[in-house]
Design brief:
With 446 residues, this protein is of the alpha/beta class. It is built from 16 helices and 17 strands. Helix 7 links the parallel strand 8 and strand 9.
Length: 446
């Protein structure tokens, strides 16, 4: 944010009413300055202060939302050139291309892929989010019917066509807030009017970065703010350079006409699916806001989703699993109870080894703020006086008859203290290595 916490505090009502869920206005102001709260949570801030704070808090690259309700995809909102400086905020949306010259079976199959190709990775669901509907046949009615199919699937939509085709499609799916592609120097007034009429985001496309600036300036002059940028380049080298130039101009040069997320189209850059995946991978890293692919295939889509997950994971916050009780292999009241930290990697390794053992088990996951067992122990987050109350409140005592708790071997040093915290429980030291869990549980079963 451009304003410090103290500067924001001066603009707040200073009532300390706690309606924002913070104990004081100063605490709320500090959270706002760090991007950890939204101004809308304060119901008492004046209109003048809201206007000033909203403008000051707006990121140099505007956040643009494509889609409505549960299908909305956010792009932009970035504040840094490099992930390690802070974090990247909005992962680029991945879109599959659907053309109105495809038959209905092909259209349905492609739209279905957006819903079907989903992967669970360390507790995070990885999936594509968008369908790009292209008017290739010149039939506005057919284009509209394909767009309607995408709208019924409750996915984000990108509409690609001329003004006539876009107008027909917006009549049937304008309420879904699709992204309109694209306003150019020759049609900016016409396309901009459609975007304004339907309240939809719009792409500003140019022949180069300078040309894009002219288009975005005309769109903003029309009162449009939700803009996505396409530099028009279709070679990997040129697109790559444009992506960096646009990001740098917005962040370092305070170039407001380029302060918008970008869209890239690997689908138009090569006919080779493998090469298209490589292009998409490069542009996800630098710095695409939306990526349109010619088709989805699990073998190529999953690596892109995984790359996106890695790049857009906050480097200052470890990936964590939710605290709670996890049942593995259908446990009952006699099944063993194990405990671990909520570091995602720890959870998935431990749960995976328990599944491999085929032993029905209960796994307690203690919130350690995403730290591993050893690190959490050193930080005082996986210690007896934290684990004891958690076990008592978790509800595990209602699920099992026995009172035996298996702790990680690396936490053996807390044995005595944990026995004091849980006097009714027998504390058992488990293996130090997760790979030894199957044999350990086999002995338990025996």
């Amino acid at each position: 944010m451009a304003l410090s916490g103290i500067q924001i505090f001066k603009l707040l009502p200073k009532t300390n009413c706690k309606d924002c869920d913070f104990p004081t206005c100063l605490a709320f102001a500090m959270a706002l300055s760090q991007g950890k709260a939204e101004l809308a949570k304060c119901p008492h801030v004046s209109d003048e202060a809201t206007a000033e704070l909203s403008e000051a808090s707006e990121p140099p690259i505007r956040t643009v939302s494509i889609g409505a309700n549960g299908s909305a995809v956010k792009a932009g909102g970035e504040t840094v050139m490099f992930r390690h400086e802070k974090t990247f905020n909005n992962p680029p949306g991945l879109a599959i291309l659907v053309s109105d010259d495809m038959d209905d079976a092909e259209v349905d199959a492609r739209i279905a892929k957006v819903k079907e190709l989903q992967y669970d990775r360390v507790g995070v669901i990885l999936k594509p989010e968008l369908v790009a509907v292209k008017c290739a046949g010149g039939d506005a009615a057919r284009f509209g019917s394909v767009a309607e199919k995408a709208a019924q699937a409750e996915v984000g939509i990108i509409l690609m066509g001329d003004a006539a085709a876009l107008g027909a499609a917006l009549k049937v799916c304008g309420d879904k807030k699709p992204l309109i592609y694209a306003a150019e120097a020759g049609n900016v007034d016409e396309i901009g009017a459609l975007a304004k009429e339907h309240g939809c985001p719009v792409v500003a496309k140019g022949t180069d970065v300078e040309d894009v600036i002219g288009v975005t300036e005309k769109l903003t002059a029309m009162g449009l703010k939700d803009i996505v940028v396409d530099s028009g380049a279709r070679g990997l080298g040129e697109v790559f350079k444009d992506q960096i130039a646009i990001r740098r101009a917005a962040l370092s040069g305070n170039c407001k006409p380029l302060g918008f997320p970008t869209i890239v189209l690997p689908c138009e850059m090569t006919d080779d699916p493998a090469q298209e995946t490589v292009v998409a991978a490069a542009l996800i890293a630098k710095y695409a806001g939306l990526v349109v692919l010619s088709d989805f295939d699990g073998a190529s889509l999953f690596p892109l989703l995984l790359e996106r997950l890695n790049i857009f994971t906050d480097p200052q916050r470890p990936m964590a699993t939710n605290e709670g009780i996890y049942d593995i292999n259908g446990p009952d009241e006699n099944s063993p109870v194990l405990i671990t930290s909520n570091f995602s990697l720890s959870y998935f390794i431990v749960s995976g080894e328990i599944e491999t053992s085929r032993t029905p088990s209960w796994l307690l996951v203690k919130d350690t703020e995403g730290l591993s067992v050893m690190t959490a122990w050193a930080a005082g987050k996986f210690v007896a006086d934290e684990i004891g109350p958690f076990v008592k409140k978790s509800g595990i005592e209602e699920k099992v008859k026995h009172r035996k708790l298996i702790i990680p071997g690396f936490a053996a040093q807390i044995l005595g203290e944990l026995e004091e915290e849980l006097p009714d429980w027998q504390i058992i030291i488990g293996p130090r290595e997760a790979s030894h869990i199957p044999s350990f549980l086999k002995d338990w079963s025996a």
